[in-house]
């Protein structure tokens, strides 16, 4: 049997709380519910694939799984090291090309009923 023993201290209000180990951020110091979602996620840009007759047969995507630093906690707290996804994307509302986008969670995919979607997943972690 494995037993984990954590140091316990008495808080300012007389409550018992576990001490925060060195190098670990105290979760009680992080402001809650301050980051706003700014809108829908971007959309990956597909490569359309056509047959000899010019008919669209599939939409192909290439998505790379990668490591990155992203602002998850409210600023000015430090960025968080995360595993995310990168690929060429566009704004899901305006259609404006955004270039290479890397974040977590990654952009979404567009699809049309009856047209296959092929995703090449590249592991760069």
Set down the secondary structure blueprint:
Blueprint: E1 8-10, E2 16-18, E3 43-44, E4 47-50, E5 56-70, E6 80-90, E7 97-103, E8 117-123
Parallel strand pairs: 5-8
Antiparallel strand pairs: 1-2, 3-6, 4-5, 5-6, 6-7
Name a few traits of the molecule:
125 residues, mainly beta, six-stranded mixed beta sheet, two-stranded antiparallel sheet, elongated, disordered N terminus
Q: Short description, anyone?
A:
The protein is built from no helices and eight strands.
What does this 3D model show about the protein?
- With 125 residues, this protein is mainly beta.
- The protein is built from no helices and 8 strands.
- It starts with 7 loop residues before the first strand and ends with a strand.
- It has one domain (35-123).
- The strands form 2 sheets. Strands 3, 4, 5, 6, 7 and 8 form a 6-stranded mixed sheet that branches.
- A hairpin with a 6-residue loop joins β6 and β7.
Q: What structural class do you assign from the helix and strand content?
A: mainly beta
For the sheet with most strands, the description reads: 6 strands, mixed
Strand residues, percent: 35-45%
The helix/strand series, from N terminus to C terminus, equals EEEEEEEE
Instruction: Tell me how many strands there are.
Output: 8
| Count of alpha/pi helices | 0
